[in-house]
Every structure is written in structure tokens, then in C-alpha cells.
Amino acid sequence: MMNYPNIAITAATGTLGTKVQNRLYDNGVPFVAISRNKPENIQKDNFRSADFLDLQKLKMALEGVDTVFFNVPLSPDMEQMTENFVKAALDVGVKRIIKLSVLNADSKSEVNLWKWHGISEDLIVESGIEHLFLRSANFMQNFQNFYGETIRHDGAFYLPHGNAKVNLIDVEDLAEVVSFLLTKKSFDTDMYQLTGHSYTKNEIASIFTNVLGKEIFYVDVPEDVAEESMLDSGMPEWMVEVFMQFNKKCKEGKVDINTDHVMKILGRGPHYFNTYIKNNSNHFIPEE
Predict the structure, then answer these.
(1) 129 CB burial (10 A radius; 0-12, 13-18, 19+)
(2) What is the pLDDT of residue 287?
(3) Could you give the CA distance from residue 241 to residue 15 in angstroms, rounded to a whole number?
(4) CA distance 221 to 52
(5) Nearest Cα to Cα of residue 65 among 31, 41, 42, 39
(6) pLDDT digit string (tens) for 78-135?
(7) Does the pLDDT at position 1 exceed 70?
(8) Average pLDDT, the chain
(9) CB neighbour class for 42 (10 Å; exposed up to 12, middle 13-18, buried from 19)
(10) Cα end-to-end span (Å), the chain
């Protein structure tokens, strides 16, 4: 049996965390899952409850861990969460941190999503702990999580992105990258930009139409309409601001970034959007 590092996965109940766990299980790699609530597929002995805002519980959860996949939730408290995580990691002797980040992360950015992740990265660098930042493109799975209902019932999705290209990555690719890197003894770099392929929203609509066999439309809504819709849905104002800032950058073409880093790590290219839809078509077809 291979001698794997002692691995912990944070945000274990999320879309990515669940897929990383499944891959580690399939490959026989031992790990512990860390989150506030126990994932359904995790045995009690492999679960540790923790909250990034509770330093003492976080230290207990990280005891005996060598390598952590750190996926910090989107929150105005991201800086405090990272400070707590770094302090706990230093106190218990964590050796390596693999942090999920975002393209364009920069602590000096005016875009909160990029700024908060940039600050989080800076805190980890300052800790002196060996680290690897995985700056990810936008998830393809956001279409099923955020726009699946309108695609099913309206045959359309609504975004203020104009006709700009935005890079999208399949979470399945990301999970394969993360699970592979978690088992490595050392890293050749301190940052990867993990991208899939770039598309305009009209191209996305055409792919949906071709794969699902029914016409799907992209509706380019005005920014004020998008903002009002999110507020009316009950989304917190801080989150609406984050999404609107990001939407603006998408429309300006600032998220049309393409690299070969997935190919370098996996030895194959990332999935195309049509593959993602074929594998997840159930999320976009109305129930009979």
C-alpha cells in the first residue's frame, strides 16, 4: 500500500468537496472530511466537525493532518476564516496547504471575489507553510446550481454578460486535479491556473440546444435588472455586490483566460461544455 500523507478536506459537503472525496475513496486514499455538518457518504470515524470562525474546534479538526485541501466559503469573513485556519495549521503542525482560489485573485483588486481570495492567499504565503494555489475558472456546474430551473421551465438562462467569452471548467476535472495533487509528496510550483474552455453565452445556448434537442435561449439582461432579481430572491446585499462586480468583469472579457495547466497535471485536456451537459442532462430536462 502506498504511503499517503495524512489528508484533510475542508468544505466537505460542497459540490467540489464531495467529488474529491469520491475520487479518493475510489483510489483507496485515506482522508478526513472537515465541515460543520457530516457529509452523508462519510463514515463517522472519517469526519471532524469544525467552523472556520471557531479557532479551537478548527485546531482539533486539524490534529495529525499533514496536507489540507482548503476551500474557504465565499463570505465577507474570508479573511478572518483564513487567519483562523492558518493559526490552527501552524499550531498543530500542518505541513502543506492546497488552497482553492479563483482566476485573477489579487489582494489589491477592486473586485471583492478576487480581493478576498488574494488576501487569503497572502495570509497563507506569510505563514511560511508550503502551499499550492489552484486558481480556478468558473464552474460549469453553476449552470445546474443557479440556472437549471429557468432552463428547464423557460428554455432560457438570464445573465448580464453581453457577448463576452468566459472560461468555464467542469468540476469533475477540478476534482481529478485536486485528488491527484493531494497525494503528491511535493509540488513543482506554488500556483496553477485551472481553466477549461471559453464560450460566449450565445455559444452556450447553442450547445444546450444541440445536446438537449430543444431550443435554449440566452437572455442578456441589463445589469440593474439582474441586480434587482437577485435582491428580490432574498440574496444578501453583500453577495449581490460580489456577483454584480464579477458579472461586470465577465462582460468586459476579463475572465477569458486559457491555460494548459489541466493538461500538464492530468495528461489530458479539460472537458468541453457539451460533455458536461451530456453527463448532467437530468438537471436541465423537466420532470414528466
Answers:
(1) middle
(2) 75
(3) 23
(4) 36
(5) 31
(6) 999 999 999 999 999 999 999 999 999 999 999 999 999 999 999 999 999 999 999 9
(7) no
(8) 95
(9) buried
(10) 48
Torsion angle, CA of 46/171/96/262, rounded to 10 degrees?
Answer: 140
Instruction: State the Cα–Cα distance between residues 156 and 28, nearest whole angstrom.
Output: 41
Provide the residue type at 151 as one letter. Answer: I
Dump pLDDT digits (tens) for 8-53: 999 888 889 999 999 998 999 999 999 988 877 777 788 999 999 9
Q: Which three cell numbers stand for residue 101?
A: 482560489
The secondary structure element, H or E, covering residue 181 is helix 171-182
Nine-digit cell at 49? 466537525
pLDDT of amino acid 43: 75
Neighbours of 7 (CB within 10 A): 22
- Give residue for cell 430543444: 214
The C-alpha cell that represents 117 in the structure block: 481570495
AA letter at 116: W
